[in-house]
Specification:
It contains five helices and eleven strands. The protein is α+β, with helices and mostly antiparallel strands. The mean pLDDT is about 90. GO terms for molecular function: serine-type endopeptidase activity; signal peptidase activity.
Length: about 190
């Protein structure tokens, strides 16, 4: 009887800890690993970062220049089930994603709803003003005659390594519910 009480105590303690870890990881803070060189020199390949999930939980806009983790599958909608099965603890238990191969990208916010972005003279212009970007790796090779107008409830993101980044120029505008969080540390 005493052994059974100890087992029940341990199982309930583990259960409460597991549920708390899920809640914290889904709604408050979550670790991610940078995969690739698109954020060089700001972040390095395989560097671990932690993001605040509050922007995702409460659907608020990140600020200009914030480094965010995005779900690159912008062609599909997201729901709570996605947040649950993508949690690191469940991924560890399930040994991979239920959705197959997809990628979370780490990028920098350059445009918010209503902004007009242009790419000329190897620079980014937001609403007609060239951005000062001391964090980029090198001058951008990309130029375009098109103007990008960021729609409501979306953002426009780019990597700091502009010549080696798959970002909004390729995948399009990022719906706010696809912004998984804002990098908080390391800074």
């Amino acid at each position: 009887m005493k052994t059974l009480k100890k087992i029940i105590s341990w199982v309930s303690t583990f259960g409460v800890g597991f549920v708390l870890a899920l809640i914290i990881g889904i709604f408050v803070i979550q670790p991610y690993k940078v995969d690739g060189h698109s954020m060089d020199p700001t972040l390095n390949d395989q560097q671990r970062i932690y993001v605040s999930k509050l922007s995702h939980s409460f659907s608020y806009l990140p600020k200009y220049g914030d480094i965010v983790v995005i779900d690159s599958r912008v062609e599909r909608s997201r729901d709570f089930k996605d947040d649950l099965v993508e949690h690191p603890l469940l991924q560890l238990i399930m040994k991979g994603s239920l959705y197959g191969d997809h990628t979370f990208y780490v990028k920098r916010v350059l445009g918010k709803p209503g902004d007009v972005l242009e790419f000329k003279e190897h620079r980014v212009y937001r609403n007609g003003v060239a951005l000062e970007e001391p964090y980029i790796k090198e001058a951008m090779n990309y130029v375009s005659d098109s103007k990008w107008i960021v729609p409501e409830k979306h953002i426009f993101v780019m990597g700091d390594n502009r010549n080696n980044s798959r970002d909004s120029r390729d995948i399009g505008y990022i719906p706010l519910d696809h912004v998984m969080g804002i990098k908080i540390f390391p800074s």
